[in-house]
Amino acid sequence: MSDVSTDVVGEHVAQVCLHRPPHNFFDTALLGAVADAYEELAQSRCRAIVLQSEGKNFCAGLDFANNKEQDIAALYRNALRIFAAPLPVVAAIQGAAIGGGLGLALSADFRYATPGSRFSANFSRLGFHHGFGLTVTLPRVVGEQHAADLLYSGRRVDGEEARLIGLCDELVADADLIPAATAYASTLAAAGPLAVRSIRATLRQGLVERLRLAMDHECAEQERLRDSADFAEGIAASGERREPRFTGT
Questions:
Q1: Count H helices, E strands: the chain?
Q2: Please, where are the H alpha helices in the chain?
C-alpha cells in the first residue's frame, strides 16, 4: 500500500489517509504525496477532503532522530503545495498531532478530535525553532497569546483544552471521529462548489505567500540551531523519555 491513499466517499468527498503507523512521521516524499492527492482531487468531482491517518497518532511530524540530513527547504516546498490546494479540508485528529504534525493539522480548514487527542508544538522542548508555517497558522487559529504559550513552552494540550482555545473545532468519541469528520465534509460538499472555492480563496487570500516568507525564516533558524548542543540534548532527552538539560549552547 502507498504511504498515502485516496478513497472517494459518496459523490463529492474524498478521504486522504496517511499510512505510516503508528506515528505517521512525514518526510518530503510523504508531504509531496499528500499535495499530489489534493491537486488531483481538485481536478475531479471532489468538493471536500477528509485528511486522516492510520495508526495510534495522527502525525508526529519529522522524525529528527532518524532524518538529520532531511532537506527542510524541500520539505517546506511540498508543505506550501498542500496549503495552496483549493479544496476545503477537514482533518480527523486521533492521538497526537505533534511538531510538524500540528503544522499539518493546521493546514486543514477544520479539525475534528477526541478528548484523548493531544496537540503540541514541541520544538522548544527539542531546543529547536518551530517550522511548517506555525508562525502564521497557529496565531491565526488560536490567537497571539495562546500561540506564544504553546510555542514558547512546547507543552501538550488535550482535546478539551484544544476545543476551548479553538485549536480544534469539534470533539467526538473515538469511534465517531472519521464518520463525524466525513459528515461535516459532506456538508461542505453540499454547498455550491464554485462558491465554496471562491469564499475559501478570499478567506485565505495572501496566506500562501505569508507562509512562504515564514517558512523561509523558520528554515533558516532551524538550520542555524541544528548543530547546537541544545538540539542534540533535546533529541537525546526525547528518545530517552526524560527531561532535557539545556545549557544555552
A1: 10, 9
A2: 28-42, 72-84, 100-107, 134-142, 144-153, 159-165, 177-190, 193-203, 207-225, 229-240
User: Contact at 8 Å (CB) between 109 and 89?
Assistant: yes
Q: What angle in degrees, to the nearest 10, is found between the helix axes of 207-225 and 134-142?
A: 120
Q: pLDDT tens, 61-76?
A: 998 777 667 788 899 9
DSSP strand pairing (13-18 vs 48-53): parallel
DSSP letter at 126 equals G
CATH of the domain at 167: 3.90.226.10
The C-alpha cell that represents 32 in the structure block? 509531496
**Containing structural domain, residue 136:** 4-175
Q: Which residues contact 6 (CB under 8 A, 6 or more apart)?
A: 14, 15, 16, 17, 37, 40, 41
**Rounded to two decimals, what is the model's pTM?**
0.95
239 inside domain:
no
In this structure, are residues 90 and 109 in contact, taking their beta carbons and an 8 Å threshold? yes
Task: Count Cβ atoms within 10 A of the Cβ of residue 144 and give its class: 0-12 exposed, 13-18 middle, 19 or more buried.
Answer: exposed
Q: What mean pLDDT do residues 200-209 have?
A: 97
What is the DSSP secondary structure assignment for residue 18, as one 8-state letter? E
Total number of domains in the chain:
1
